[in-house]
Amino acid sequence: MALTVCVLLLASCNKSGDEQATDAEAAKEEPTLEPLTSENAVEVLTAYGKEHPDSIAVISTRHGDIKVRLYKDTPLHRANFVRLAKAGFYDQGEFYRVVKGFAIQGGDSDNRTMKQGGYKIPQEFNPKHYHKRGALAMARYGDERNPEKESSSHNFYIVQGEVISPEELKAYEAQNKMKYTPEQIKTYTTVGGEPSLDQQYTVFGEVIEGMDVVNKIAEEPVDAAQNWPKNIVQHKIKITNQ
């Protein structure tokens, strides 16, 4: 099953003049984020990553907190995640796609007012980083529009996954043209994950605390057509390094 960048469509509502004025005042106080483009994203993120070596983030939801460690050998993805989180961009997001036994996907919301720009992140595939249970990775558009498998600017997902049989894992090795290490084989066949996504999407971190929260989100009732949670699961992301 492939993860794609999808948009959650929410019904809009009409507001009174007083409410619109209040919104305008609030917008002036919101933190700002300089939008990036495909032309300057790598340069900006490279420089930002050197100035901000942070590698721990806490994703807070109504179900509890998920603490993740960001990999330093995926520097562009780490810098991008830290940059958006520190700017408050992810505080306007939610887990908008939930597939039990597969993954929960977040980072987007139709209610967001902050803009990040229309850019993609070059893939940073690393055979050391695979889609084990708890892996943090970036979503992307499909192969036809994105042959280089560049990542979305902001949509991320956390793998829930299931235990994989040795026979299934061998099939995925052939499919993805890769060879799993004994440790990776043990993890997939005893803990679980989603090997179908390996070398297709960039894994740039992992859950170190709060996998129970991921499981709770995965249990949310969803719309059968789009896998959208019927009850919004908002998230806020704080860079903590603790």
Descriptive account of the structure:
With 242 residues, this protein is of the alpha+beta class. The protein has helices at 17-29, 41-51, 75-86, 166-176, 182-190, 211-218; strands spanning 56-61, 64-70, 93-99, 103-108, 135-138, 156-159, 203-209, 234-239. Strand 1 and strand 2 form a beta hairpin. Helix 2 packs across helix 3 (75-86). The chain is globular, with a radius of gyration of 18 Å. It starts with 16 loop residues before the first helix and ends with a strand. The model is unreliable at 1-29 (pLDDT under 50).
CATH H level, superfamily name:
Cyclophilin-like
Rounded to the nearest angstrom, the radius of gyration is 18 Å
Q: For this structure, what is the CATH class? A: Mainly Beta
Order of helices and strands: HHEEHEEEEHHEHE
Number of domains as seen in the coordinates: 1
Q: For the report, how would you describe the main beta sheet? A: 8 strands, antiparallel, barrel
Please state the structural category: alpha+beta
